[in-house]
Amino acid sequence: MKQFKKLLDRNGLKASKYTIKGKTTIVDTPLGQFALKNNKGNNIYRYLLSRNFDYFPKIVDYDDNNIMFEYLEDIDYDSSQKAFDLIHLVSLLHSKTTYYKEIDYDEYKNIYEKTKQRIEYIDNYYKDIINVIESNIYMSPSEYLIARNISKIFECINYCKYKLDEWYELVKDKKRKRVVTLHNNLKLDNLIKNNNTYLISFENSKTDIPIYDLVNFYNEYALDFDFEILLDEYERIYPLLEEEKMLMFVLISVPDKLFVFENEYKTVLGVRKLLDRIYKTEYLITPKDNNIDS
Predict the structure, then answer these.
(1) pLDDT tens digits, the chain, 294 residues: what are they?
(2) What element of type H or E holds 104?
(3) Nearest one of 42, 45, 47 to 199, comparing CA atoms
(4) Do the beta carbons of residue 4 and residue 36 sit within 8 Å?
(5) Which of 58, 126, 131, 204 could crosslink 184 through cysteines, CB 3.0-4.6 Å?
């Protein structure tokens, strides 16, 4: 671990053991353990401190190449509570780093066109699938499950088309958008609980509208947690704007492609998971969507 030697020597630390955990190297020294990482994210940590967001392990030292943190042992606890704590910290991150950015005409137009292309692709994808299924003499169990629920899939796709157009009508003439620092890698493993809770791994952070952290987290854990509770906690601290919420609902509602396995049982489970995601998303957004429209 020669790349860390300069930083360790500068702090009078002699390494006795190195342990690699993902992109982090844990070093054991006579003065305790420290976490070392590549210095790519150093500027983001300094920026977060300037915005009074310090919910990450204490920075011990850094140089042009590496950054060293106090090492914190993570406490294993209930995953639902961990998801709640993570969303709580993300709401604070967004709240403390928010500002309004001037934009040009093409910015919202590009989001609209890119999202519309994705929806159209999924629409054609499922039209092709149901055409193939209906041409078969016999349906497999997974095909039968798709055929029985294809109207719900297309209902979901049509909702996305309608709401995307509605969103674009709302934002197309706007000259500013609200942006925040996105963590951009929200996973339960990136939350540490010790004496307090901390977010780690900001290497992929970027500046953009706040919903992308929520959308990515939902895509990762949609069937694992009660997102009504999580979204309510987020908005308790950082309420979403009308146009932000509308776009988020579109993005989380677009159906995924199917995963077809050689094993039919696994394919049936994949179809069931797809449908469960559709129904759960509908249950989540319907009452909130009605509040937007009212």
Answers:
(1) 677 888 888 889 898 999 988 888 999 999 999 999 887 656 899 899 999 999 999 999 888 788 999 999 889 999 999 999 999 999 999 999 999 999 998 999 999 999 999 999 999 999 999 999 999 989 999 999 999 999 999 999 999 999 999 999 999 999 999 999 999 999 999 999 988 999 999 989 999 999 999 999 999 999 999 999 999 999 999 999 999 999 999 999 999 999 888 899 999 999 999 999 999 999 999 876 766 655
(2) none
(3) 45
(4) yes
(5) 204
The residue whose two tokens read 């704007």 is 241
Number of neighbours of residue 165 by Cβ within 10 angstroms: 13
What counts of helices (H) and strands (E) characterise the chain? 9, 10
In order of their start, the domains of the chain are 2-70 (3.30.200.20), 79-293 (3.90.1200.10)
Beta bridge partners of 18: 27
DSSP per-residue letters across 15-68: -SEEEEETTEEEEEETTEEEEEEEGGGHHHHHHHHHTT---SPPEEEE-SSEEE
User: Dihedral of CA 37/38/43/44: which sign?
Assistant: negative
Query: If you count them, how many residues does the chain have?
Result: 294
